[in-house]
Amino acid sequence: MTAPSTHPRRPAAEALARIDHPSPATSPEDASPHRFPDGGAWRTEIPSVEGPEALAVVLDESTRLGLPVHRVSQGSGVWMLTDDEITEMVRACTERSVELCLFTGPRGTWDIGAATRTDSGGAGPRARGHDALAGCVEDAVRATGLGVRCLLVADEGVLWTLHRLRTAGVLPADTTLKVSALIGPVNPASYSVYEQLGADSLNIPSDLSLAHLTEIRRSSRAPMDLYVEAPDDLGGHVRMYEVAELVRRGAPLYLKFGLSRAAGIYPYGAHLREHALATARERVRRGRLVLDLLARHGADGGMSPLGSRLPGTLRRFPTPEGN
Asked: How far apart are the C-alpha atoms of 285 and 267, rounded to whole Å?
């Protein structure tokens, strides 16, 4: 692994210098001092990989394009997959040393409550009531029993409950908990709270500024997940030319390759098959474009070794279970 550059080339800096057009200076004080425990500054993630067939497309296409993949994540939820499908995905990811992350459900946006369909959005995707929380726990126990070691959550209470279950030994100790972009924290204090509730990586909204990343990194070293290109329902932002600076300020950082201008596929089923496979293929291509851009800017060093998945030691609130 080569070390990340602390001063990557700014886009078009040399060309603009030829006509005496100044480029903004970067401050060393803005750089994140944190890294993954393996020393890496960044990892990659392909989101919205909704089943074994989409996973096979991602793995084949990543081989063809030479895209290193650290993690794939699924958004429809554990409950939308059969045991055989989960087992097949675990096997395929294990063979390639790729982390598999499955979403826990149910969630409020699919519930019978009407508030999520109002302009206010109500409580959003959070688990409504005991039964929804229990469903998320049921998903977590089932998925980890089948070999999954990363769970995606969209509720603070679910996060804390799963962390307590992990501390108590109900979930495997090496299970990692990932906060969904649907509830991603937007300031340093909330980011720190999620870390202490048990989060091992946190999606932040893709519209946070570079300065916001620096502010967060001054309060927490918990790994950050960021859509370089966001789905339309998360804003549709495309931030490819900022990637070197996103890594410099946000490390340790998962670069997520989403798609704008693509119809949503949650909850996924066979009726969406062709769309799901086509978008899975294009997400890999988007990832290749981003890594090529990093290389052109001299900022492609510092990638975590493939197969790395753990976040390192993080801060936690004390639990009744003794952690």
From this structure: 24
